[in-house]
Fold:
Amino acid sequence: MQKPYFGRLMTAMITCMNEDGSINYDACAAHSEWLLANGSDAILVEGTTGETPTFTQEEKLALIDAVCKRIGGKAPIIVGAGSNNTAATVAYCKEIEAKFPDVNGLLIVGPYYNKPTQEGFYQHFAAVAKATKLPIIVYNVPGRTGSNIMPATIARLANDFENIVAVKEAAGNVAQTAELYRCVPDRVSIYSGDDGLILPFMAVGAVGLISVLSNIGGQELNAVMDAFEAGDVKKAAELNKIMVPLAQAMFVESNPIPIKAAVSLVTPFEAGAPRLPLVPISAAGEAKLDAALKAAGRM
Structure:
C-alpha cells in the first residue's frame, strides 16, 4: 500500500459561490484543475473549508459530479462525507460509492456536538467502514467537534478495517501525533490538519498535509516538505518562517472566510462570499490578510 496514500498535499477546496449565494459549479471544477497544476496532489471536496454544513443534498451531489467530470482519473478525489448522524453518514457514503466511480476516498469527521465516548467513536467509524469499500480518512478535529478521538481508538479501527487508510490529525498536538504514529499500523498515512504544524508533525511521523492555504497554491508548503524530506532540517525551518505567517493569516477569522478572500485576490477565481452564518471578511481582517500576502510575495 502506497504511503502517503493520497499523495503528500491534499487541498481542502473552497466552494466558489455566485453573487446570489448559489454554487458556481463551473468555477469549482476549474479551481480543482488549477489546484492540481499548482502543487496539490489530491482534492478534498465538501470539507469544512468547502462550507458543506450549509449545502443541500442536491448541491452536494452536483458538486461531486462537477469535480469528477473535470479531474476524475487525473488525481485522487476525496469527499467529506461525515456527520454526527451515523445512519445518515452510512447512507451518504453508500450513495457516493454507487454514483461516482471517480471518487477515490472519504473523509469522515468525528461526530460533532454529540460528544461520543471512545467506544462510540469506534462504533461510528466501524459502521461506515463496513458499509463501503472506499478508503477512509479518519478526521480528528476537537476544536470543531468538541471531543478528541484518541490514538488508541484510531489504532483499533485501523487494525480492524483495512479500508481505514489515513488520519487527518487536527488536534494541534505534536505529542498526540507522535503517539498516533507509534500505535497505528505502518500502512496508515498520517496527515496534518494544520498548515502551520506540518514541519513538527512530519518530524514525528506525518507524511503529508490536508491544507487550507494551498487553495491559493502549494508553493510554500511544498518547499517546507521538500526540504525536510531531503534531510535539510535547517532549510526547512527557514522556509517554515516564511510559510507559517501566511498560513496563520488564513485563520484571522473563521475558516473559510479569509481563504475565500485570498482566492479572489490572488488566483484566477472569484470565490464569492461565504454563506451564513459566516459573513465576508471584516476590514480589519482583510488588512491583516493583505499584509501577509504582500509579505509572502503573493500580491
In short: The longest strand covers residues 164-169. The mean pLDDT is 97.
